[in-house]
Please model this.
Amino acid sequence: MIMEGFQATPDDGGIAKRLWVKFKNESLCALYTPFVVCLASGTLDSKSFLHCISQDVYFLQAFAHAYELAEDYADDDEDKEAIRVMRKRVLRKLKDQDDLVREWGFELPEASTCDSATVRYTDFLLATAAGKVEGEKGRGKIVTPFEKTRLAAYALSAIAPCMRLYSFLSKEIQAVLVPEESTNIYERWIDCLCSESFEANASRIEDLLDKLSVTLTGEELDVVEKLYHQAMKLELEFIAAQPITQSTITPISQVQEPAGCNLTLFCDFDMTCSAVDSSALLADVAIIAAAKTDLEDCESPYVHISAADLRATWSNLSSKYIEEYEQCIESIRPSETVGRFDYEGLCKALVQLSDFESRANDMVVHSGVLRGLSQEDIKRVGEHLIFQNGCKNVLQEILGHENMHADVHILSYCWSGDLIRSAFSSGALPELNVHSNELPYEGSVTTGDMIKKMESPMDKLQAFNDILKSCENNSKHTTVYVGGSVGDFLCLLNADVGIVIGMSAGLKRLGDQFGVSFVPLFSGLVTKQRELAEGSCSGWTGMSGILYTVSSWDEIHAFILGL
Model:
C-alpha cells in the first residue's frame, strides 16, 4: 500500500569526484560486458585478453602526446611539473610494456592493429588536447594564461575518467575472486590495476583536474563535463567492442537462439519504475480536489469531506498502515533463521501478509478518501509522474529490439490502472500490459470503491503464471522479474532471473529468515560464466532461492541489452 524511499547524497568534492559520481551508473554497465564477465570468471580466452592489452600501446602514445600539450598549456610551474611527471610515467610504461605483460604471464603478439574503438577514443583525446573543442578557440589563437589553463583542464578531463574507470572495474573484479580457489590466470593483471600506485596515478590526475578547474567559468565547467562524459562513453564502447569467441551468459539479448530471444519482462511499479509511491499521488489528487470544492462550495452527489479532514484521514491511514505492516512482517518471521531455502514456509507466511493487505485496502475504501476523484486529474498526475532514472528507456529499447521477441507486463498493487497507463503513455513507449487494481467511475468521477485485482504476493504470482501459460511455445523463453518489495517476492523467486532494485527492509528481513540469497548481479553472472565454461550451467532457471541485486536500471539495461 504505502512505501517509503530515500536517496543518499554523496559527499561533495572537486569536479573530478562529482563527475565520477554523476556518471558512475554508466560505468557499472562495463561490468556486464562479455569481456569483463569472462575476465572476472577466469574463463576469458587468452587471445581475447592479448588482443585487448595490445591496444595499450595506442592509448599510451595518445596519453603521452596529450600530456605534452597539456604541459605546454599549464601556466603554473608546479602544474607543469606535475603533468611532466605523469608523461614520464606513461613513457616508462610504454617502454616496459612487453616486460610487464610477461610478468603477468603472457606474451604480446609481434604485430597488432589499432581497433576502430581505440581510434575513436585516441582521436577524441588528441583533438581535445590540441584545443579542437566545440566552441573553443584553436591552439594558435591562445592569448592569456587563463585560456591555456582552460585547455590543460580540457585535456585532463578526457583522460581522468579512463584511469578511474579501470581502477573501479579492477576492484569490482577483485572483489568477486575466490582467494582460496583462485585459478584466475588474469589475477596478476587485475592486481596491477588494483595496486596503490595505479590508484595514486588516477588520483593525481583527478587532483590536478580539480586544481585547473578552479578558475573556469560555469560555461567552461560545462565543457569539462561534456568532455569527461564523452571520454567515459568512448572507453565503455572500447570495452564492449572487445572480440569474444566463446559462449557467454550476458547480455540476454545476444546469447539466446539464433532466431532471437524470447523474453517476458515483469516489473513492479511503485518505487521500481516510479520514483514516488502512487498512493501518495492519489492522496494529493484527492486533497487538491477537496480544497477546490471547499473554495467553490460545489454541489456533489457524495458526502463532502473538507481538505483538512481529508489530509488528516490520509495521514492516519498511512501511519496505521506502516505501524501494522511492520507488526505483520515481524509476526510472520520464523523464530529462527532457516538454514536452507524454504519456499513452502515463505508461502505460508505470505498468506498472513495477504490478509493484512486486503484489510488495509478495505480501510481505504471505507474511509471514503478515494471518492470524487476526477479521471482527468488522475491521468494528468500519471503523465507527470517521475520515473526511476533509465527505467522508461530500458523498457522502450527492449520492446523495440530487433533481435528480441519481448513482452513487458506491469504487476502492481497500485489502486489505479489509469494512473499507470497514463504514466507510460507520456513517452515513446507502446502500450504496456498493466495488471493492477482499478478505481470505478460514475461518469468521469471515482465512486470511492476499488476493483481489487492485485492485493497480495499470491495475486501477483497468479497473474505471472497466467501470463506465462498464454505465451508458451516450443522455443526457449526467458522470464525476468524486476521488483523490490515483499509483494514481489514469489514472482522474483519463480522468474528465471529475479532482479531486486530498491530492496525494501521487509524483503531483506524475510529473505534472510527463509534462506533466500541476495547476490549482486555482477557476482552472479561471474559464477554463471564459470559454470558455463565447466559445462554445468544450462542457463537461467527459477526457484534457485537466489535473487540478484542491482543499484540502477542502467545495470538492467546492460544485462539484458548490452551497452
